[in-house]
Amino acid sequence: MFENLSDRLSGVLDKLTRQGALSEEDVSTALREVRVALLEADVSLPVARDFIKRVQEKATGQAVTKSVTPGQQVIKIVHDELVATLAGDDENAGELRVDSPPAPILMVGLQGSGKTTTTAKLALRLTDRGKKRVLMASLDTSRPAAMEQLAVLGTQIGVDTLPIVPGQSPVQIAKRAKQQASLGGYDIYMLDTAGRLSIDDALMAEVEAVRDEAKPHETILVVDGLTGQDAVNTAENFDQRIGITGVVLTRMDGDGRGGAALSMRAVTGKPIKFVGLGEKMDALEEFHPQRIAGRILG
Ligand code: GDP
User: Fold this and answer.
1) Burial 139-160 (b: 16+ CB within 10 A, else e)
2) What is the pTM of this model?
3) Most buried residue, 23, 31, 149, 163, by CB count within 10 Å?
4) DSSP type of residue 21
5) How far apart are the first and last CA of the chain?
6) Distance 156 CA to ligand 1 centre (A)
7) Which uninterrupted H or E stretch holds 219?
8) Residue 224 C-alpha to ligand 1 middle, in angstroms?
């Protein structure tokens, strides 16, 4: 198991003499430990480096409060900075822009990331809590099983899916989804695009064509939160080619430390809207920066 940061820091920092303010040396000693903790939590190296630099600037020279140890004080500064970075300037975590019906939501991501599951989880949330009428459509023409999977989930949660018509291209399906959503009086239609095991040009070209057709109000990238640095590369790629508006991190119920959240936020600047916490349809939660910060620090 990981050693938690406060144990780590109390070991090194509480030996230091208190001189009324955090000296540069105190802070550097502490931040070496913070850096190890971040890397162990799967935060990418450049992001960890930048983060440490910001904390160093904030912490050095700060008066040491009587009520806490220097170690606790550094932890508080690190924690606050983590929360600020994770939250960014997004005041609407957990909200999707779904005005002017029928609002298209494009779901993108690699195969196995949890995209189809997350599409259904979001649809359930939008119908249940937002009282919206939602139509889901699978655009995964290369994997009939994936189309079937969405239909099965739809039945399970009581959300309509676009009937499967074999032989149509993803763009044709997107058009049909829009028509059906307009005619049927739906508030939202969700397009579950195909994924691949890794990013390739054909995948991106296909998603681009669908994006151009649907002009989505939200483009949500679904990423496996356990994949660390790969998650960040995936996010960068999708953001550059497709332009994402938000991220859902899945498998946050696993024992990973969630460092991908920090890297992702820092690298793309795009908000993490929700986290997936299991396979069940209600295992989706709004993103809480505080919780992830606590988890990263251990
Ligand atoms: P897709 O290929 O990206 O559409 O992935 P799927 O939606 O088919 O999900 C792949 C597997 O991951 C399925 O077995 C899902 O039940 C599972 N899964 C999806 N999200 C989560 C999550 O947040 N936590 C856990 N533990 N499993 C998940």
Assistant:
1) bbbeeeebbebbbebbeebebb
2) 0.91
3) 31
4) B
5) 10
6) 16
7) strand 218-224
8) 9
State the helix-helix crossing angle for 259-268 and 289-297, rounded to 10 degrees.
120
Q: Is the CB of 127 under 6 A from ligand 1?
A: no
Rg from Cα positions in the chain: 22
Q: What is the mean pLDDT of each run of 10 residues along the chain (298 residues)?
A: 65 62 80 88 90 90 75 85 87 78 97 97 93 97 94 98 96 98 98 91 96 97 89 92 95 84 90 95 94 86
Does residue 277 have its Cβ closer than 6 Å to ligand 1? yes
- Predicted ipTM of the assembly: 0.99
Give the tokens for residue 136.
Answer: 């889901």
Cβ of 119 below 6 Å from ligand 1: no
111 is in an annotated binding site: yes
Token pair for 128: 């249940």
